[in-house]
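At this stage, I put together a protein sequence along with its fold in token form, as given directly below:
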Amino acid sequence: MTKKQRLELTWIGKDVRPQLEPRILLEDPERSYTAAHRVSDDDIFDNRLIFGDNLLALKALESEFAGKVKCIFIDPPYNTGSAFEHYDDGVEHSIWLGLMRDRLEILRNLLSNDGSLWITIDDNEAHYLKVLCDEIFGRANFVANAVWQKKYTVANDAKWLAENHDHILIFAKNKELWRPYRLGRTSEMDERYRNPDNHPKGVWKATPIYAKRTGSEKEQAFSFQFKNGFVWMPPKGTSPRFPAETLRKLDENDEIWFGTDGKANPSRKTFLSELKISGTPPATIWLHTEAGNNHEAREEVKAINPDDSFATPKPEKLIRRILDIATKPSDLVLDSFAGSGTTGAVAHKMGRRWIMIELGEHCHTHIIPRIQKVINGEDQGGISKTVNWKGGGGFRYYHLAPSLLEKDKWDNWVINKDYNAAMLAEALCKIEGFKYAPSDTFYWQHGYSTERDFIYVTTQNLSHEQLAKLSEEVGEERSLLVLCSAFRGKTDDFPNLTVKKIPKQILSRCEWGHDDYSLKIENLPKAPAKLGQLELGF
């Protein structure tokens, strides 16, 4: 039988997938930071800043945060072939797609069922990336491609067209469950409401009493006489928006407007105070006046670090707009390409919980000082004044633990000497799919997968007598996975125990000792001798 074909994006090396090691995260309290005192009852302290390769960091987060992230924003290297100071992103198309695919698959797992993903990207890879996301998220979960005006000036030296926009690809984990929040009203919107006749309900604006659709014959023949004698019929090709009874009530309450001279076609007075839906649905064109621009973003970062400003930041207004549409206070936001830390800064000011991941040294030179100033209330740039930011909260700084296994001088895989007993137990819980939760009561309970299934990690050589004692303590109603350096005796004698040797038990699970899957040319796998064309396969 021939393989059923489908619409998909294909590229060289698409079938090559890394066997990621689920590392543990180690906190560095000296780099974690909290405000000196509480500013409000809504202060959030459990934010996370993770230093390390973002693919390994995402894998490290997966067991704890799968299905818990409400909004993911990423601004990945655009693969333009131009070398940035902080990102070397001139990566061949197929390799770039493979690296993005590996990250997007984990990002999807982290999203809540009502969560959404937002990606800023330029024309160079936007359309390939859209098809890639279709495969991972499902084409039915594509929400929109918003166009952001990142520049407000035109480059006179442009060889072809002057590039003024970026794309924002928006996908939902489940589009049937996800709905965008409406954007708040602006002062310009409210200025359209006036009260020329001093109506007691306050300011209003005139809105049509007809709908722009062709109604039934009865609707097309509809007519209504107002108390001033005006006989109204809906214009040709339209239908009445309200039945006669509603029009009569509006007329009696002086909620119909006939113009300043009282002779114009009637319209309804729509009062600002009675709007049931006060906000507006987000549009797909984002002007720089609404969502900021690149120049504005550079000025924001320069104010934080004037000596070494980040080359390609995003403006705070852009991130605020995304979080306004996608989240509510206390929701969890993730950015795995943190860059200069704009996402965390904006999320913090807006009362959202956040996780940021960054590999570059600017994690320390740019992000930490920036977030510290936000927490101290010293950062009054960006959206601070708009949201009345006063400071508060904190974050915890983590780095990735080294690979669990390393090779000894005889080229044998052994447990990394940097691992203590607690680190080893946590790492093996993560690899075996157990929740790490050491018990204060039972030494052999390092984690659990169910209420009756536990895991015990030890570097001891367990004797038959020790296994027998362990089996007795576990009891018939529970089961225990024992990971040890070695053991003696017949394990068949203990049906409630599953005994395995380490590192043998996990050797084939992962790529050990691989510390960098970053978007850097020097870390990429070798491409085949002849690179074919990227193509859409049918």
